[in-house]
Write a structure and sequence with these properties.
single chain; 140 residues; mainly alpha; 69% helix; elongated
Length: 140
């Protein structure tokens, strides 16, 4: 679910937002709906992550506090919100004031669109390095 959420959000940003033409709101509305649906699903995976960590800790006879885990996940999300806001200003300034084309990539928001899509794609790609993902695909 984590990979589906991240990759779908990345595709929404790179395709719908990036390819939206100036003055056209249809792709931007589709982007908002798709991105909002899949990006918000990321927090829904926290319950499964905590259950998996608790069962792993129980097998190793270790103690895990689910309240602390939830707090750390929310804390990381808060750091992401703050750093994303601070980073978006230089990215928008890097896009320049002049637009050179008709799609979202060629506007002031071009670098922000690329950064958003790539960071989400790398977030979903990180799942490939977990042992449970390899077991799911039967890769040894």
């Amino acid at each position: 679910m984590t990979a589906v959420s991240a990759i779908s959000s990345a595709l929404a940003a790179l395709l719908f937002w990036g390819l939206a033409e100036r003055g056209s709101t249809a792709l931007l509305i589709l982007f908002a709906i798709t991105f909002g649906f899949f990006a918000s699903a990321y927090s829904a995976t926290w319950g499964g992550v905590m259950v998996d960590m608790e069962s792993d800790a129980a097998r190793r006879n270790e103690a895990v506090d689910s309240g602390v885990l939830y707090g750390l996940l929310n804390g990381a999300r808060g750091v992401g919100y703050v750093s994303g806001g601070l980073l978006s200003v230089p990215l928008i300034k890097a896009g320049g004031a002049d637009t050179v084309g008709h799609t979202g990539y060629q506007t002031t928001y071009g670098p922000l669109i690329i950064f958003t899509g790539l960071s989400l794609a790398f977030g979903g790609w990180g799942l490939a390095f977990t042992p449970s993902w390899k077991n799911l695909l039967h890769i040894r």
